[in-house]
Automatic annotation (TrEMBL):
<dbReference type="Pfam" id="PF22725">
    <property type="entry name" value="GFO_IDH_MocA_C3"/>
</dbReference>
<protein>
    <submittedName>
        <fullName>Glucose-6-phosphate 3-dehydrogenase</fullName>
        <ecNumber>1.1.1.361</ecNumber>
    </submittedName>
</protein>
<dbReference type="GO" id="GO:0000166">
    <property type="term" value="F:nucleotide binding"/>
</dbReference>
<dbReference type="InterPro" id="IPR055170">
    <property type="entry name" value="GFO_IDH_MocA-like_dom"/>
</dbReference>
<feature type="domain" description="Gfo/Idh/MocA-like oxidoreductase N-terminal">
    <location>
        <begin position="22"/>
        <end position="146"/>
    </location>
</feature>
<dbReference type="Pfam" id="PF01408">
    <property type="entry name" value="GFO_IDH_MocA"/>
</dbReference>
<dbReference type="GO" id="GO:0103074">
    <property type="term" value="F:glucose-6-phosphate 3-dehydrogenase activity"/>
</dbReference>
<dbReference type="InterPro" id="IPR050463">
    <property type="entry name" value="Gfo/Idh/MocA_oxidrdct_glycsds"/>
</dbReference>
<dbReference type="InterPro" id="IPR036291">
    <property type="entry name" value="NAD(P)-bd_dom_sf"/>
</dbReference>
<feature type="domain" description="GFO/IDH/MocA-like oxidoreductase">
    <location>
        <begin position="158"/>
        <end position="295"/>
    </location>
</feature>
<dbReference type="InterPro" id="IPR000683">
    <property type="entry name" value="Gfo/Idh/MocA-like_OxRdtase_N"/>
</dbReference>
<keyword id="KW-0560">Oxidoreductase</keyword>
Amino acid sequence: MEETRKPNPNREGDPMADLKPLNIGLIGCGFMGRTHSNAYKRVNDFFDAPYRPVLKACCARSEENARHFAGRWGYESIETDWRKLIARRDIDAVDICAPNNMHAEIAIAAAQAGKAVLCEKPLAMNLVQGHQMVDAVEKAGVANTVWYNYRRVPAVTLAKQLIESGRLGRIFHYRANFLQDWTISADLPQGGTGLWRLDADVSGSGVTGDLLAHCIDTAIWLNGHIGSVAGMTETFVKERRHNLTGKVQPVHIDDACAFLCRFDNGSLGLFESTRYARGHKALYTFEINGEKASIKWDLHDLHRLEYFDHGDDSLVRGWRSVHVTDSDMPYMKHWWVPGLQIGYEHTFVHHVADFLDNLAMGQPTAPTFRDALATQAVCDAVLDSADHHKWETVVPV
Ligand code: SOE
């Protein structure tokens, strides 16, 4: 984690001169391509990273999009065929920001070509594909990580530290929500640029893989393995026009999903996600109740970690609102001065900083493909449970 980072002696004098380049090949020039490109560009300005990411090539199916993206972010070259990008000897790391149905094929090819692989979440369309991807990166022995970025919100990393220090004691409850409202209109088409998340053939699932996967990744990280789940899903708008075929077609994604679960540590979990919660754009919250203390976090106020400690003097006991900006808080010493804030995009910078450090030390960067496979196993079990109307055991991975 961030605290293990050592000052880099190479950064004296010209700070960039001696840094080893790491040539990035980015596949997919959409929203996630932007968050990652920004992170590669910023990381050396704020972190003493042992490598300098070089934006070597970006790849999109449309040459016009690739050129536009390359021009804006400063990529040296473009490709329109991802296989050509992977075949290039001047690419060290392949970053997959393409839609979910392409993750497996690209990741496996990149691993076989000996490239480091950074993959957007969710890992795969399903567990079977996920296993193939894990096998490929582990067999090739290449560095790999999945961009579950919310782990690296400083307040969320602090929550991990508080739990590990034993301050919460035995955990009884884990509750998480990820609520949005952008698909309520029945006129919204499915498929194509920007709307592939509504097309199950491309996304694999709806809110389960897109939003709950974030909640599950954080939950497993903070509270351990999930053993069994009972889920329910709903598709509120049953048919939408498909952007590519022009036809009105059935919708196969889950618009909403809620599930109960049992963690191996004996605690109970309650998770909900929807794109039909009018008024919520990206409300990710979690609350954890332990024997000695509780914590709460809300993406809309991402620096704040609410903390209740039963050990406090009863006369002043209450929820403390910890503002996670001090320089001794996770990641914060790299940014501004205590009290000043960072945002969503910085979580990706933190991920790159950790990845570069770990790469230099030959260590894995969590979540690795194998870590993300555990999240995939829970997603698959939740969807199976909803289909079969019964509790499902989560396959250990
Ligand atoms: C969907 O709207 C989305 O952009 C997800 O794909 C991201 O993973 C999430 O962080 C925000 O919402």
